[in-house]
Amino acid sequence: xxxxxxxxxxxxxxxxxxxxxxxxxxxxxxxxxxxxxxxxxxxxxxxxxxxxxxxxxxxxxxxxxxxxxxxxxxxxxxxxxxxxxxxxxxxxxxxxxxxxxxxxxxxxxxxxxxxxxxxxxxxxxxxxxxxxxxxxxxxxxxxxxxxxxxxxxxxxxxxxxxxxxxxxxxxxxxxxxxxxxxxxxxxxxxxxxxxxxxxxxxxxxxxxxxxxxxxxxxxxxxxxxxxxxxxxxxxxxxxxxxxxxxxxxxxxxxxxxxxxxxxxxxxxxxx
Amino acid sequence: xxxxxxxxxxxxxxxxxxxxxxxxxxxxxxxxxxxxxxxxxxxxxxxxxxxxxxxxxxxxxxxxxxxxxxxxxxxxxxxxxxxxxxxxxxxxxxxxxxxxxxxxxxxxxxxxxxxxxxxxxxxxxxxxxxxxxxxxxxxxxxxxxxxxxxxxxxxxxxxxxxxxxxxxxxxxxxxxxxxxxxxxxxxxxxxxxxxxxxxxxxxxxxxxxxxxxxxxxxxxxxxxxxxxxxxxxxxxxxxxxxxxxxxxxxxxxxxxxxxxxxxxxxxxxxx
Lengths: 271, 271
Prior knowledge:
The structure is a homodimer of 271-residue chains.
Chain A: E1 16-19, H1 28-38, E2 42-44, H2 45-48, H3 52-60, E3 79-82, E4 93-96, H4 98-108, H5 117-141, H6 154-182, H7 184-187, H8 201-216, H9 218-224, H10 229-240, H11 243-249
Parallel strand pairs in A: 1-2
Antiparallel strand pairs in A: 1-3, 3-4
Helix pairs in contact in A: 1-4, 1-8, 1-11, 4-5, 5-6, 5-8, 8-9, 8-10
């Protein structure tokens, strides 16, 4: 069991279960950050429960035509299991796809602007764009085939990472900076929040991708700080200090980057 | 103005505007199919309005910190403009990101199971997975850099497309088939609908990706038909016959594939 509900969140929540691979942040981290930022308890099944990964595999990676509890199959982890939220109101709901999980949780965890339909869709718009960047960064070390070793696609990875660093990062960063600037007055400060006047999952999702890029491409990111200081300095540091996140990021629950989406191969960084 | 509201859809809709590049199906096609399947009128701005593409560029590709009507900036088309749905209830709402637009429209167009929260998220789960495949197919001809010519990354494209055809297509197709099989009883037939008992945007989105793959990789897809007949024969043909779609697909509004996401380079197909 991870974060405990904070005093301000009195709403009763089901015992959410994050179903993901053990030992890596990966795409599960976007879901973890949402729970941790909201101060809502969840079970990180593969990391916290005995034989938890076999449960994850059973639900998300089985060969059958059902995930579990009468829910349709899952393409791949992460998935979210929500006891009592299934179709009949009793069984569990199982949903997959990172942005789908975030949209589902957004309102329930208080991570979208309240009573604000446009705001909800703007949060999702920004989060989806950050997840697109996440995929592009993954492809810098696996541009040809996800099932092959990096070493077997290294020549292509050098080319791909150069393009992502030189062309794609600035394009995405410029978009996030414009979004911050658009929201500067509403959020009450420079580089504070991406949508509205409090933390949303757009902030946590963009932050995670930036943090991952800092691990993967430390030289590139250091060089970009001047050009994108609202995003890479103000915003990045602001979000890190948010109550639920600050505690989490220094805890043992925050897993180190290793061989997942964000990998540090010095040759793929700026030379 | 495209499809006219059908008799069964008496609900009043705003005059939706699809903001996308002219002349190609691209990612705009997922949004078009949703409107056409629902029989709800929309304006395809770049294709139907005089100087429409400059409106698209102004809203979705400008250098400022706002898209239009007090909405945050857009990373790239497609976007949806909905008059009267903005934050103040008077101005227009502008939202971007294909799955975000589809989720927004799903309930409004009757393209998700009614009064069924789990069903709505299952539709989005399947649609997001189809859009992931769409991106992977795009990368078969642009594995290194989206801004470079295909000819400048042809060696890498040959490797990437081989992996996508041999490993990724069957993985995705198998997932879609399992989803169809899971839903066989509820949908009332083999290979009928992916979620629930009537057409959803999961169906139109998966269908479009399959159709695009048939254009891009005709030999590969022909060979796969036996292995995945529920998906590539029953489902594919069923959806094509849906009332709103059947008419649309033979109309002039259905744009031909050319140099967008789905491209036919014979050398990238099965040899």
